[in-house]
Write a structure and sequence with these properties.
Elements lengths: L1 E3 L14 E4 L13 H22 L4 E4 L7 H8 L4 E5 L3 H8 L10 H11 L7 H4 L1 E4 L2 H9 L8 E2 L20 E5 L8 H7 L8 E5 L4 H13 L6 E3 L8 H6 L3 E4 L10 H8 L3 E3 L16 E2 L5 H13 L1 H15 L4 H16 L6
Parallel strand pairs: 1-2, 3-4, 4-5, 5-6, 7-8, 7-10, 8-9, 10-11, 11-12
């Protein structure tokens, strides 16, 4: 696996076949502007790294993952080398990737300059992603976004990510203790501030655990918000936790909140919570709306409405039969989306593309 030199804080070590050698346009949760010499240096560095690994490995097929902020010229290099490839599209990188790639974006709508720069520098200036790889998209939501941006994606496929099967190990139900959980990146687009503010509409014993990390500025704003609303003693931050700990973190909660404001590409958090047998309160925006069903496997609430979250939590507290129904529906939903199923579909697609066929 060839990836960037950026790594989030985690205790989990890299595998022996992971090489953190590529350079990224994204830094410190921002897209900084960099000089032309720096852009050329970044592109040439990444090209040299890729060419070295291709020469050493001689791959039958290449898989592109999460290319937003990475040198898209690498995709074009592989296309020109006639190496079969599959692009895994788990967020909107097909849409925003060309905008934040500071090399190729500079030549958009400048075909003559692009051709000249390509010849002189040896760095591809125009990238045809659809011709370079078969696209496997995480959801119909992401495919719709890409098509709205101009991609045809006529032969693309949808492959839903899933949960680790260990989440499906049966865990006992629990008595209601007003323990709320938000799991995931601390990001305003994910509605984490709405989760905090929901406490204001709940009894004093209600607490919220935040399991995840993000931009330190967001964390600071959340603390300020909690302090301003006198909720600071009811919010606990766990930070980023190893994957192995997450099932028990879910199991220790009464309800899991997924109050995303943006159109989430897919959303594993509700599925993980459902697998552990915990009810979910969610907005159902984006890909998560493709499997979330109100009062069948979750409670859906309006976007950016903390008091609606509080009302839904009060319903769960007072209606044990509702919790039982959502638990059963959630377990049924979670079993349909497993990591094993995703891995099987991904391997089938890679095998077919390597053999010169389109995935079925």
């Amino acid at each position: 696996m060839l990836t960037t030199d950026f790594r989030i804080e985690t205790e989990e070590p890299d595998g022996p076949d992971t090489f953190r050698e590529l350079r990224w346009y994204w830094r410190d949760h921002e897209w900084p502007r960099i000089s032309w010499p720096a852009r050329v240096a970044l592109e040439r560095h990444n090209a040299a790294v890729l060419e070295r690994h291709l020469a050493e490995l001689q791959p039958d097929v290449l898989a592109w993952w999460a290319m937003g902020g990475m040198s898209l010229s690498l995709i074009e290099r592989v296309r020109r080398a006639a190496i079969p490839a599959v692009a895994f599209v788990h967020d909107d990188w097909l849409v925003y990737g060309p905008q934040v790639d500071l090399w190729t974006s500079a030549f958009r709508r400048r075909p003559r300059l692009a051709a000249a720069a390509d010849r002189v520098s040896g760095i591809p200036t125009v990238v045809n992603i659809e011709a370079a790889a078969h696209c496997l998209l995480v959801s119909e939501t992401i495919r719709a976004h890409a098509r709205a941006a101009g991609y045809a994606l006529g032969d693309s496929s949808i492959v839903h990510p899933g949960i680790d099967p260990t989440y499906l190990e049966r865990r006992p139900d629990r008595s209601w203790t007003w323990s709320l959980l938000y799991a995931g990146r601390l990001d305003e687009r994910k509605g984490v501030s709405d989760a905090v503010l929901a406490l204001a509409g709940l009894p004093e014993e209600a607490t919220l655990t935040l399991a995840g990390a993000g931009d330190q500025r967001v964390s600071a704003r959340l603390r300020e918000l909690a302090t301003h609303r006198r909720l600071e003693n009811r919010v606990r931050e766990l930070g980023m936790r190893p994957r192995a700990e997450l099932p028990e973190i879910y199991a220790a909660a009464d309800v899991v909140l997924f109050p995303v404001r943006w159109e989430e590409p897919w959303g594993l958090v509700p599925l993980e919570a459902m697998a552990v047998g915990r009810p979910v309160i969610a907005t159902g925006r984006g890909g998560s709306g493709e499997y979330l069903r109100h009062e069948q496997n979750c409670l859906l609430v309006p976007v950016a409405d903390p008091m609606a979250i509080a009302h839904a939590a009060r319903r769960l507290a007072s209606e044990p039969e509702l919790r039982t129904r959502l638990r059963a529906g959630g377990l049924q939903t979670a079993r349909r989306y497993t990591e094993t199923g995703f891995n099987r579909a991904a391997m089938e697609a890679l095998t077919q593309v390597a053999g010169g066929r389109q995935p079925t």
